[in-house]
Amino acid sequence: MKKVCLDPGHDAGNLANKSPDGTYYEHEFCLDMGKRIQALLERHGVAVTMTRTDGKEVSLAKRCEIANGIPGLNLFVSLHSNAAGSGGWSSASGWSEYIYGPGGDREKAAQDILAAVKAAGITVRSTPIVYDPGLYVLKHTVAPAVLLEQGFHTNQGDVANLKDAAYRRRLAEAEAKGILTYLGIPWKEDTANTDFERAIQWVRENGIMLGNTDGDMMLDQPVTRKQFAVMLYRYHEKFGR
Q: Helix, strand, coil: what percent of the chain each, to 5?
């Protein structure tokens, strides 16, 4: 069985890594992405370990200790969003990834993930793979390690994407596909997910369930009894007579 360690960057104690308008926090995004990628990898039979599963503090040393304690770990993937400038909005944007240095399995993993991200239509930086031996989790993990910077939380366009549930699903799927390619595991479409997408399209087209003023369907949010009653009423008005 292949083994992957996912490392959602930072924790809920880190409130500095956020968008200038305070609508996005890196720690929340990274944990959500970790859980999304975990589910996709586990559906393909991969054993996944998360360095954190909630907002509690986990030091960089502890994250490496967790990864290095997994016998036969195939890949360590650290999840982040990037930043530029001095506190305000910046023009820097796009997806990129960091590895300790060129060559070897880490380079292959990085290339496989990059290819899948590009195939999904995700905007990447002009230099999408950066070599940085100074990054702690890349330096102190034994297994091949990749650090993903999934967009800039200091760029307004990137932030709009990073906050969007549909974009997160697309990005998580692309990154999971790249990881699976590296592991030598073929991607299998989830028929249940296909049915889900069709269902969402149907309720939207028939006016049963509508998004917010921005068109976001907020599919990861719970439904209140009031919202459920409205959806039942809309269904009855359209099809019940």
A: 45, 15, 40
